[in-house]
Write a structure and sequence with these properties.
- It is built from 13 helices and nine strands.
- It is an alpha/beta fold and 293 residues long.
- It has two domains: 7-116 and 277-292, ATPase, nucleotide binding domain (Nucleotidyltransferase, domain 5, 2-Layer Sandwich); 119-276, ATPase, nucleotide binding domain (Nucleotidyltransferase, domain 5), CATH 3.30.420.
- It has a five-stranded mixed beta sheet.
- The longest helix has 25 residues, at 223-247.
- It starts with 6 loop residues before the first strand and ends with a helix.
Length: 293
């Protein structure tokens, strides 16, 4: 992965955090750094600050602070929301501090990195959810329509559904359970009014925080948690099968909830799962190097 600058940096920008990894010109990873949310369609220019923070911290983690400047880095980013035209325009006009800056979707970077540039599929289960296939230099996405319109099975969806179930229990129109009681304790809200005041304008990441509780109570045979997890897994299995049929390859799971949901996926999907070869940061750098060759 050769470039005109001394160091290549790959960035994986999602709805909850942004991760940068710095590589030397031979492709060896030297350090990594974490920044804030970087879904460019949802948080706009805040995402660019997260990218800069993550790259700066990667330089520091590599022990290169004071010796390598941002202006010496060729940055390639895979970003959530990069398919939205307004977000693309914002990034195209960004006066970034780097030697060069290029971007693709987070899915494109993830699927290329996961299979080392070869055909295959990925499924993302984090704050959001989606699958993608990569074959014949083409990426096909399924799901990932955003919190308002989709992202079923994701952390944000699970958390929001758990809150809805809790509100219905508080209203007395649906049964309560250990999960709904735990959701009240998690948000320190014990009435519908308190929930509405706290979460009526909640961002996906705020709902995703409670998703691990849903899995925890599903293992305890909580009926509401179990229903939510099985609904999530059914949808995720369906979009995984679509991606696998495109590429006729294997599947890599990524995202903070991927291992929690894995046991609930259908048998066909579970048989296709393999470890990732590389991360999305490497995938973004690889794709950038292919463009400039």
């Amino acid at each position: 992965m050769q470039g005109k600058t001394q160091f290549n940096v790959g960035v994986d920008g999602g709805g909850t955090k942004c991760r940068a990894e710095i590589f030397d010109n031979k492709g060896s990873a030297l350090g990594a750094g974490i920044g804030g949310p970087a879904n460019v369609a949802r948080v706009g220019e805040k995402a660019t600050g997260s990218i800069v923070d993550a790259v700066t911290r990667a330089i520091e983690d590599a022990g290169l602070a004071g010796r390598v400047l941002l202006s010496q880095c060729r940055v390639s980013a895979g970003l959530a929301g990069a398919t939205v035209e307004a977000a693309r325009q914002m990034l195209d006009q960004w006066r970034h501090p780097f030697a060069t800056f290029s971007f693709i979707t987070d899915l494109h970077a993830a699927v290329v990195g996961a299979h080392g540039g070869k055909k295959g599929a990925v499924m993302v289960v984090g704050t959001g959810s989606c699958t993608a296939s990569y074959a014949h230099d083409k990426v096909q996405q399924y799901g990932g329509h955003g919190f308002t319109l989709g992202d079923k099975g994701s952390g944000a969806w699970l958390g929001c559904e758990a809150v809805k179930a809790t509100l219905e229990a508080l209203d007395g129109v649906a049964p309560s359970s250990a999960l709904t009681q735990a959701v009240c304790e998690f948000y320190d809200a014990y009435s519908t009014g308190e929930f509405v005041n706290k979460l009526n304008n909640g961002l996906p990441a705020e709902f995703a925080r409670v998703a691990p509780l849903v899995f925890e109570f599903a293992t305890r045979q909580d009926p509401i948690a179990g229903d939510l997890v099985h609904r999530a897994a059914s949808y995720l299995s369906a979009i995984a099968e679509r991606a696998l049929s495109d590429c006729e390859g294997n599947l890599v799971l990524i995202g903070g909830l991927s291992e929690l949901v894995r046991p609930y996926l259908n048998a066909r999907v579970q048989r296709a799962i393999v470890p990732a070869q590389f991360g999305p940061e490497w995938g973004a750098v690889l794709l950038d190097s292919m463009r400039v060759q």
